[in-house]
């Protein structure tokens, strides 16, 4: 009998310039119940909004049922474009001072502007050239293990619908603002793309307890991470970059900003329904990637 070792060596992720045609099967997708629009959604009682949201969700669903996985562009309405313009313009003002310079550059590379809602197909094409990361439309909020596991395929599941017009600053569920302004630019960084892939690999093999730890790591980095850049603190987390309130709050005395410590982070509880009182600062994506690689290796088989 062979000796079992406690760690599993993880190879360097390979950037093979893959396309959406190489995606694995979308079987057994498990969604959180939020798909039915929770009652606190600003559009919950607006039937026209719900119908439109569900139509856009149906386009996303067609993507995963299509054997060729072709992303269907959404013809956004003038009203939807206006919601984007309002929120993107206000965020851009705050981001000029608070977002990492890498992120600001990445937005330009992907063609994300305040003028119009970017299409996943176009961002996917540009990302493929840069880091081989892929975007796959999805019609709702996927449960944690399934969602994170897709990152192992260098693929992020992204919604295409947009928040309700009555509250441009708020959405209780991921929408195209959160995906395109929050998440997608980070995948243009090779170290961040690799780090995401490690999280995905970890999610696939994690015990339930380890999955909770991974969820906290994801929360305090991908969603709410800060990075030190030339002696200044900057935001890179999607939950910060896509929310006026969180982005401004992150740099006030309301928040305790701590140096990133993996063991602390994976044990740190959080409340997703309130402003974050604790944030963690990484020194670089490269360091985050290496720390995460070692951590995932400790999961074993
Ligand atoms: Fe997110």
Could you name the key traits of this structure?
disordered N terminus, 12 helices, 301 residues, Phenylalanine Hydroxylase, binds fe (ii) ion, 6 strands, globular, alpha/beta, two-stranded parallel ribbon, 4-stranded mixed β-sheet
How would you characterize the overall build of this protein?
- With 301 residues, the chain is of the alpha/beta class.
- It has a single domain, classed as Phenylalanine Hydroxylase (Orthogonal Bundle), CATH 1.10.800.
- 44% of the residues lie in helices and 8% in strands.
- It has 12 helices and 6 strands.
- β5 (256-259), α11 and β6 (278-282) form a beta-alpha-beta unit.
- The site of fe (ii) ion has 6 residues, from α6.
Count of all domains: 1
What do we call the CATH homologous superfamily?
Aromatic amino acid hydroxylase
Number of strands: 6
CATH architecture designation: Orthogonal Bundle
What's the mean pLDDT score? Answer: 90
| CATH-derived topology | Phenylalanine Hydroxylase
Spans of at least 5 consecutive residues whose pLDDT stays below 50 are 1-8
Largest sheet: 4 strands, mixed
The neighbouring-strand order within the major sheet is 4-3-6-5
C-alpha-based Rg, rounded: 19 Å
State the shape.
globular
State the helix count: 12
Share of residues in strands: 5-15%
* Cofactors, ions and other ligands in the entry: fe (ii) ion
Helix-and-strand structural type:
alpha/beta
Query: What share of residues is helical?
Result: 40-55%
Q: What is the CATH C level class, in words?
A: Mainly Alpha
């Amino acid at each position: 009998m062979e000796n079992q070792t406690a760690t599993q060596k993880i190879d360097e992720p390979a950037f093979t310039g893959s396309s959406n045609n190489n995606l694995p099967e979308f079987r057994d997708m498990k969604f959180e119940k939020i798909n039915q629009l929770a009652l606190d959604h600003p559009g919950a009682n607006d039937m026209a909004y719900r119908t439109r949201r569900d139509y856009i969700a149906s386009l996303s669903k067609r993507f995963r049922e299509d054997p060729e996985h072709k992303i269907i562009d959404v013809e956004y309405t003038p009203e939807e474009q206006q919601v984007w313009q309002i929120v993107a313009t206000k965020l851009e003002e705050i981001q000029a001072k608070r977002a990492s310079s890498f992120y600001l550059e990445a937005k330009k590379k992907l063609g994300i502007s305040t003028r119009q809602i970017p299409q996943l197909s176009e961002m996917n094409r540009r990302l493929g050239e840069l880091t081989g990361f892929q975007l796959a439309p999805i019609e709702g909020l996927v449960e944690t293990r399934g969602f994170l596991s897709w990152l192992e395929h260098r693929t992020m599941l992204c919604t295409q619908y947009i928040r309700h017009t009555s509250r441009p600053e708020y959405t209780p569920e991921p929408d195209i603002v959160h995906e395109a302004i929050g998440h997608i630019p980070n995948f243009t960084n090779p170290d961040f793309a690799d780090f995401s892939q490690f999280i995905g690999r970890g999610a696939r093999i994690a015990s339930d307890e380890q999955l909770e730890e991974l969820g906290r790591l994801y929360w305090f980095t991908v969603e709410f991470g800060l990075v030190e850049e030339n002696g200044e603190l900057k935001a890179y987390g999607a939950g910060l970059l896509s929310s006026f309130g969180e982005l401004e709050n992150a740099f006030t005395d309301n928040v305790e900003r701590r140096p990133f410590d993996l063991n602390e982070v994976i044990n740190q509880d959080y409340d997703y329904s309130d402003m974050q009182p604790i944030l963690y600062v990484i020194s670089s994506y490269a360091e985050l990637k290496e720390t995460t690689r070692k951590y995932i290796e400790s999961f074993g088989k």
